[in-house]
Write a structure and sequence with these properties.
mainly alpha; elongated; disordered N terminus; disordered C terminus
Amino acid sequence: MRYAQGGGLTEERRVFREELRMEAAERFVRGDENAVIAHDLWVSVRSVQRWRQARSQGGPRALASKGPASLPLLSDELFTVLEQVPAKGPVAHGWPDRTWTPSRIKTLIGRRFHKSRPFTCGDAPRA
């Protein structure tokens, strides 16, 4: 899964992070201190504090993964197409130089796939 398509975490990484939270929850029950848990699990003390608060308010289920942060704009098939489109280069798509920028990729996605999210950079090619 790609960052732009899944909020930044793969399924394996989400599972790993959930396991960390569940391990912390077991240690909350044993009475371990936040700093000790954070050190042992290699996470920040603030994360452990948030997990402890979430668990105290919502129980162990509050620490379960809620899935990806956002839904993908493109299907896997369309993302495969997108990976091939920039190979022609920015000039072939109407820009005056050979530099790909995030805003140009966003414009290309909007044109080619009719998909967009709010964007403020405004790097559209000049006609």
